[in-house]
């Protein structure tokens, strides 16, 4: 038995939907259909104007900060009366989230069908030419083909056209997405320019460090919000001690092959307070830093 594959078949505290009666019943694990279900119920916070929406900031902030899929399902039912099985809800009745939330939903739907799936935090290469843009995608195990597949559940037809994407977002080429672990090693070992990695005005080694640690946590089924900070995420890269840098180097190398290094990744996350989210984070929202309890973990 492949221990990692069995581990990722099962829900973690963030992907468990809770009351499954609210989810679409029946249906298989066809990835195209599960992505359609995800997109039928969600809309991206940074693309609202592209869809012709003008949503109150209070609602946008509330929905963007939902951490668990259980909360997301409740929000979908509140907005539209149900979680759609694929018929697209009106745009204003879809739950507002980010790439992380599209990814969490797809992972939840896959795991609910017994398909191993995990959230990857890192950088997409297909948003800004020559740049590595902060992003999350889903990786799931195709049992028939005995391989892990990369799928971006956020990219719908509108986004694909605007971004000029010319590859299959359901089965992505590996080079189109860079995990936080790979980005850290690219800049530390291969001398890539850290300023090419980030989003908006946020970039550089501190941003890469944050995505490395979020990626490592997500490999342990703790996929937190993109602006949740804890442990070594809060430490300034330029002032870090050598031991902490070495720890992150090791974490990045382990995360490069999460199946081969599965047991070490689990042990390292459990044992090291600089990597582990201990139940409390600081969320750097548009309203300023907010201390939050993450009781799901």
List keywords for this structure.
297 residues; 18% strand; 11 strands; 10 helices; 6-stranded mixed β-sheet; alpha+beta; 3-stranded antiparallel β-sheet
Description:
Helices cover about 35% and strands about 20% of the residues. With about 300 residues, the chain is α+β, with helices and mostly antiparallel strands. The protein has one domain (about 5-295). Strands 3, 4, 5, 6, 7 and 8 form a 6-stranded mixed β-sheet that branches. A 3-stranded antiparallel β-sheet has the order 9-10-11, with no helix packed on it. A two-stranded parallel ribbon has the order 1-2. A hairpin with a 4-residue loop joins β4 and β5 (about 145-150). α2 (about 30-40) packs across α5, α7 (about 180-190) runs antiparallel to α8 and α8 packs across α9. The longest helix is centred in the middle third of the chain and has 14 residues, at about 100-110. The protein is globular, with a radius of gyration of 18 Å.
Q: Tell me the span between the first and last alpha carbons.
A: 26 Å
The parts where pLDDT drops under 50 for at least 5 residues are: none
General form = globular
DSSP summary, beta strand count: 11
Radius of gyration: 18 Å
How many independent structural domains? 1
Please tally the helical runs, counting DSSP H or I stretches of 4 or more residues.
Answer: 10
The helix fraction, in percent, is: 25-40%
Largest sheet: 6 strands, mixed
Order of helices and strands: HHEHHEHEEEHEHEEHEHHEE
- Proportion of strand residues: 15-25%
Structural class: alpha+beta
Mean pLDDT: 95
